[in-house]
Design a protein that fits this description.
The chain has 69 residues and is of the alpha+beta class. Helices cover 19% and strands 55% of the residues.
Length: 69
């Protein structure tokens, strides 16, 4: 395995469907502007209630990607 240097950023994804979709939404959006994404770590989960029912999920991710050059 080659030596790599990574940069780590934090993102928040959301979805009314569930946690997995919230993660997928965040990563899909990040992929549009960030190259070489290699890993992610879920650091927080939250839910939004509407009339006492879960209406939306949020996840905070730490996302790592390799630096070029």
């Amino acid at each position: 395995m080659a030596d790599h240097t990574y940069k780590k950023i934090e993102l928040v994804g959301s979805s009314p469907k569930g946690l997995e979709d919230a993660v997928k939404n965040a990563l899909a959006r990040a992929k549009k502007t960030i190259r070489n994404i290699r890993w992610f770590e879920v650091t927080e989960t939250r839910g939004y209630l509407d009339d006492g029912k879960v209406a939306h999920w949020q996840v905070t991710l730490k996302v790592g990607f390799t630096l070029e050059g």
